[in-house]
């Protein structure tokens, strides 16, 4: 069980060439990842996510701030000690980074050889790990005979070989199709729940955050612009960057073009209701509308799961005479967050 703390961390790369300015890849970022938590870091390409992970595993040195992995302050350890701390950190990558010339079992065994684990113990551990990721029957295959999802499962088995307390995943599902991506995320969830391994996971896909993370940090141009419990951030995004990410993974209000299209097809009054974690009693909502003698159809939106809680946004068309609709809207506003679409 390992906590990871980043406290005011910065990373600046020196200018390349005379005209160029230095690049501030990470700018004053603080993240406290509790032991056993799955923490996602999301941001667009170039936001500084990969740099941040390389700082955590000590492959690069921060230019400011402090990073603690467990009780080890990696930011001021000599390289020889950093290597020891890195032994307690597993890494998986978008491109898997496997040895193509080695068989599956040998890939998983490699970190155990580096850690000088005796051969019989190595064989036992490799068998156990391949069983855990469901690849026992592929032990003697070469990695280029495997599908992308299988390769990433080998990557996960290898990362777990030395029993790390922390697993760092850099776009681990970005090269996979959606279905395979789901399988790998489910496996990472098992890694977290069965072994209590803390996971820091970097992604540019909000869907990944929604599926698996407990908490999330949104990065933009090197800075952490938003942070918190996944459900809270999703259901109430504050910054433009977060809003754009959330829109890719949650039911939204219709955008301007879509609204115009909806109006062409629907003559009634359009309203959007937001449902957060069962805070709205849906039968009451629909009964309220019916009680006012108003008809209703759902024209846009849906309900989805975020961090094990439900989030919904439904755009309804209310049909009937103006006064009845006005009363229905007033009554609805007592029961749910409601927006009348202008
Ligand atoms: P992300 O993973 O979010 O796409 P990166 O951490 O890879 O972002 O990069 C953040 C910024 O730092 C980018 O502007 C990138 O060009 C720059 N950068 C990354 N690594 C280096 C490096 N070794 N030298 C100089 N600049 C770098
Ligand atoms: Mg990256």
From TrEMBL:
InterPro entries xrefs: AAA+_ATPase, ABC_transporter-like_ATP-bd, ABC_transporter-like_CS, ACT-like_dom_sf, MetN_ABC_transporter-like, NIL_domain, P-loop_NTPase
Assigned keywords, A-Z: Amino-acid transport, ATP-binding, Cell membrane, Membrane, Nucleotide-binding, Translocase, Transport
SMART domains with a match to the protein in the record: AAA, NIL
Gene3D superfamilies: 3.30.70.260, P-loop containing nucleotide triphosphate hydrolases
One annotated GO molecular function: ATP hydrolysis activity
Leader peptide range in chain numbering: none
Domain ABC transporter: 4-246
Superkingdom in the source lineage: Bacteria
Biological processes per GO annotation: amino acid transport
Protein's name according to its UniProt entry: Methionine ABC transporter ATP-binding protein
Native organism taxonomy: Bacteria, Bacillati, Actinomycetota, Actinomycetes, Micrococcales
């Amino acid at each position: 069980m390992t906590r990871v703390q980043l406290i005011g961390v910065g990373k600046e790369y020196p200018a390349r060439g005379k005209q160029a300015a230095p690049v501030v890849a990470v700018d004053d970022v603080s993240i406290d990842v509790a032991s056993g938590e799955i923490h996602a870091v999301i941001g667009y390409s170039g936001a500084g996510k990969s740099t941040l992970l390389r700082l955590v595993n000590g492959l690069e040195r921060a230019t400011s701030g402090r990073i603690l992995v467990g009780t080890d302050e990696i930011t001021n350890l000599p390289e020889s000690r950093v290597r020891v701390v890195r032994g307690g950190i597993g890494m998986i990558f978008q491109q898997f980074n496997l040895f193509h010339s080695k068989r599956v079992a040998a890939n998983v065994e490699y970190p155990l050889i580096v850690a000088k684990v005796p051969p019989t113990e190595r064989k036992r551990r490799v068998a156990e790990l391949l069983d855990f990721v469901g690849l026992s029957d592929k032990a003697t295959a070469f990695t280029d005979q495997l599908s992308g999802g299988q390769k990433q499962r080998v990557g996960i088995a290898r990362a777990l070989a030395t029993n790390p307390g922390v697993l760092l995943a850099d776009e681990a599902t970005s090269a996979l199709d959606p279905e395979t991506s789901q399988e790998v995320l489910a496996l990472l969830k098992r890694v977290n729940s069965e072994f209590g391994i803390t996971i820091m996971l970097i992604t540019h896909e909000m869907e990944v955050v929604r599926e698996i993370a407990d908490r999330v940090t949104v990065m933009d141009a090197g800075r952490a612009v938003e942070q918190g419990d996944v459900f809270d951030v999703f259901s109430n995004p504050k910054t433009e960057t977060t809003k754009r990410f959330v829109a890719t993974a949650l039911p939204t209000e219709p955008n301007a073009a879509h609204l115009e299209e909806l109006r062409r097809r629907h003559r009634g009054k359009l309203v959007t209701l937001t449902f957060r974690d069962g805070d709205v009693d849906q039968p009451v909502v629909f009964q309220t509308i019916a009680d006012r003698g108003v008809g209703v159809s759902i024209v846009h939106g849906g309900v989805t799961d975020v961090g094990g809680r439900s989030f919904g946004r439904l755009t309804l068309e209310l049909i009937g005479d103006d006064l009845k609709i006005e009363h229905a809207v007033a009554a609805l506003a007592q029961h749910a967050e409601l927006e009348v679409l202008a």
